[in-house]
Write a structure and sequence with these properties.
heterodimer, A: alpha/beta, Rossmann fold, Alpha-Beta Plaits, six-stranded mixed sheet, four-stranded antiparallel sheet, 14 strands, 30% strand, B: mainly alpha, MetI-like fold, 9 helices, 0% strand
C-alpha cells in the first residue's frame, strides 16, 4: 500500500548539504500499522512528508497503492493526495470554523454535493464520538477532541492510507491512549493502512505491527514490534525500550552482584509468559534465582515479558539452567557490569 | 451656540460628506489593488507556493518606494499620472488617485502580515488533502486571517482620513480642509474645535466598529 524505495532527501544549506533522510526503504502492506520512531532531528517529519510529497524526494521512488508518486503531474498528484489522509501534532484545524465546517469545507472544496457532505460529516463525527460538538469552535475543545476532529476530517475523504505526524505528541498520556484506541479502531473497522511517526515508545507498543528506528536519517533497525521488543540490537532501540520499562540496572550494581553468580535478562514471548519456568529452574538445578526487575509489555500482536534475575550457584549449574531456559524458547542476555 | 450651529452645520455637514466620499471611494479601490498585491507578495515569497524571487523583490521594492513618500509630496508628485487616469487633478475626483496610490501599498503590507500570521500547518494540511492553491488562498488563508485583516483595514481607514485632510490643497474639501481653511487661515477657532471633535468621533467610531467586527470573527 505504501512503499518507499531508496528514498533520500537532502536539504542544501550554507554549511553544506544536510541529509535528512538517507536511502530509506519501507513497505506497509494493506491494513497494517507501521511506526517510525526516532529522536527529534532524526528526520521523521521529513520522512512522512515524503510519502505524500509535501517534500519532494531528492532521489528514490514513492508508491501509494501501486501508483508511483514522484513522477505524477501536479493535477494527478492532487487527486492521489485525496486518498491519503494526514493528521498532525498540532491538529491544524481552521480556528474560524466550527467542528462541522472543519470537516465540511474540504469536502465542499473537493466538489462533493451538499447531501454527501452532510452525510459524511455526520458519519465520521459519530465515528470519532464528537457528534454533539459539531457547532463548537476548536478553541473550545480539548487537545484530544481537536485531534478527533482532525481524524474525522482525514477520514471523511475516505482515504486508503492515513499518515500520522506525531499525532499524540501534544497530548497527555490518558488522551494519547484514547487517540491510539481510535486509530486502532479505524484500522480494524475501516481497513485503513496507517504509517505513523513518533518519539513515544508506547505508541509503537500499543498499535504498531512493524517498527523502523530512524537515526540521523538512516533506518538503523527495523522489524516486527515483537522482534524489536524482545531482541533489540541497536543502542538507540534499547534506549527507547528503556523509556517504557525499567530494563536498566546500574552497571555498578550489576558488577557487585556478579561477584557471586550471574545477572541475566530473560525475555519471554507469547505463551511461555504464563509458565512458571523460574520455579522449575530452581527445582531442577542447584541454583537460587533472585528476581531483580520484572515487567510485562502488551504489544498489539502479543505479550512480552522481561525478567532480570540474579542466579547464584555453581558455574556448571548456572550454565545448565540457562541452557534449559534457552530450550524453552526464552531469550537470554547476560548483563555486563562496569 | 445655536447661532454657531445654524451658521456652520451646512458647511460642516457638507465637508463630512466629502470626507466620507473620499474615504469610501479610495478605500474601495485601494482594497481592489492592495489585496491582490498583498496576496502576490505572500505567495511569491521564498518557500511559498508560487515562489518567485524576481517578482517578490520587485513588488517589495515598489511597495517600499511608494510607502516612503509622504502623502503631501505624493499628491503633487503624481499629478501627471492623476491627469491621465481621471482627466483632472482637482476636486474630489483629483484626490482619489493619489489617495489610492498612497493607501493600496499600505493595505498590501497589512494584508501580507495578516496572511503570514496564518499557521503554516493548516495550509499544509489542506495541501495534503489535495486542495487547489487558489482554494487554499480563499478558504484557508483569507478566511483565517479575517480578524486581523479587519483590524488592518481599520488602521488603513484611519490613516486615509488623516490623508484626506491634505486634499484641500487640490480643492477637494473635506473635514480636514475645513479645519485648515476656516480654523487656521481665518482664525475661527470654534470651527477648528468642532471639526477636530468630529474627526475624533469618526475615528473612534471606525475603530470601535473594527474592533467589534474583528472580535466577532475571531473564534478563539
Amino acid at each position: 500500500m505504501i512503499k518507499l524505495e531508496s528514498i533520500s532527501k537532502v536539504f542544501p544549506s550554507k554549511n553544506g548539504d544536510v541529509t535528512a533522510v538517507n536511502n530509506v526503504n519501507l513497505h506497509v502492506k494493506k491494513g497494517e500499522i507501521h511506526g517510525v520512531i526516532g529522536y527529534s532531528g532524526a528526520g521523521k517529519s521529513t520522512l512522512i512528508r515524503l510519502v505524500n510529497l509535501l517534500e519532494k524526494p531528492t532521489s528514490g521512488k514513492v508508491y501509494i497503492n501501486g501508483t508511483e508518486m514522484t513522477s505524477l503531474p501536479q493535477e494527478k498528484l492532487r487527486k492521489t493526495r485525496q486518498k491519503i489522509g494526514m493528521i498532525f501534532q498540532h491538529f491544524n484545524l481552521l480556528k474560524t470554523a466550527t467542528v462541522y465546517d472543519n470537516i465540511a469545507i474540504p469536502l465542499r472544496l473537493l466538489g462533493y454535493d451538499k447531501q454527501e457532505v452532510k452525510k459524511r460529516v455526520e458519519k465520521y463525527l459519530s465515528i470519532v464520538d464528537l457528534s454533539e460538538k459539531q457547532d463548537t469552535y476548536p478553541a473550545q475543545l480539548s487537545g484530544g477532541q481537536k485531534q478527533r476532529v482532525a481524524i474525522a476530517r482525514a477520514l471523511s475523504q475516505e482515504p486508503e492510507v492515513l499518515l500520522s505526524d506525531e499525532a499524540t505528541s501534544a497530548l497527555d498520556p490518558e488522551t494519547t491512549d484514547s487517540i491510539l484506541e481510535l486509530l486502532l479502531k479505524i484500522n480494524e473497522e475501516l481497513g485503513i493502512t496507517i504509517l505513523l511517526i513518533t518519539h513515544e515508545m508506547n505508541v509503537i507498543q500499543k498499535i504498531c505491527d512493524y517498527v523502523y528506528v530512524l537515526e540521523h536519517g538512516d533506518v538503523i533497525e527495523h522489524g516486527s514490534a515483537i522482534q524489536l521488543f524482545t531482541n533489540p540490537r541497536e543502542n538507540t532501540t534499547k534506549k527507547f525500550l528503556n523509556t517504557i520499562s525499567q530494563r536498566k540496572l546500574s552497571p555498578s550494581l550489576v558488577s557487585q552482584l556478579k561477584l557471586k553468580g550471574t545477572v541475566t535478562r530473560l525475555t519471554f514471548i507469547g505463551e511461555n509468559t504464563g509458565q512458571p519456568l523460574l520455579a522449575q529452574v530452581s527445582q531442577r538445578f542447584q541454583v537460587v534465582p533472585n528476581i531483580l526487575t520484572a515487567n510485562i509489555i502488551e504489544l498489539k500482536n502479543g505479550i512480552v515479558g522481561n525478567l532480570v534475575i540474579h542466579l547464584v550457584g555453581e558455574k556448571e549449574q548456572i550454565d545448565a539452567s540457562l541452557k534449559f531456559l534457552d530450550n524453552q524458547g526464552v531469550g537470554i542476555e547476560e548483563l555486563e557490569g562496569n | 451656540m445655536e447661532m454657531f450651529i445654524q451658521q456652520w452645520l451646512p458647511i460642516i455637514g457638507e465637508s463630512v460628506i466629502e470626507t466620507f466620499q473620499m474615504v469610501t471611494v479610495s478605500l474601495f479601490f485601494a482594497i481592489i489593488i492592495g489585496f491582490p498585491l498583498g496576496i502576490l507578495v505572500v505567495l511569491t515569497r521564498p518557500g511559498q507556493s508560487l515562489e518567485n524571487k524576481f517578482v517578490y523583490q520587485i513588488l517589495n521594492l515598489l511597495i517600499n518606494i511608494v510607502r516612503s513618500i509622504p502623502f503631501i509630496i505624493l499628491l503633487f508628485f503624481i499629478l501627471p499620472f492623476t491627469k491621465i487616469i481621471v482627466g483632472t487633478t482637482i476636486g474630489v475626483k483629483g484626490v482619489i488617485v493619489p489617495l489610492v496610490v498612497y493607501t493600496a501599498p499600505y493595505i498590501a503590507r497589512l494584508l501580507e502580515s495578516s496572511l503570514l500570521d496564518v499557521e503554516n500547518g493548516v495550509i499544509e494540511a489542506y495541501k495534503a488533502m489535495g486542495i487547489k492553491t487558489r482554494q487554499i488562498i480563499w478558504n484557508v488563508m483569507l478566511r483565517e486571517a479575517r480578524p486581523s485583516i479587519v483590524l488592518g483595514l481599520t488602521i488603513a481607514t484611519v490613516g486615509l482620513i488623516g490623508a484626506t485632510a491634505m486634499a484641500g490643497l487640490v480643492g477637494a474639501g473635506g473635514v480636514g480642509d475645513l479645519a485648515y481653511r476656516f480654523g487656521h487661515l481665518r482664525y475661527e477657532v470654534d470651527v477648528m474645535y468642532a471639526t477636530v471633535l468630529i474627526l475624533i468621533i469618526i475615528v473612534q467610531g471606525i475603530q470601535t466598529i473594527g474592533n467589534r467586527l474583528a472580535a466577532r470573527l475571531k473564534k478563539d
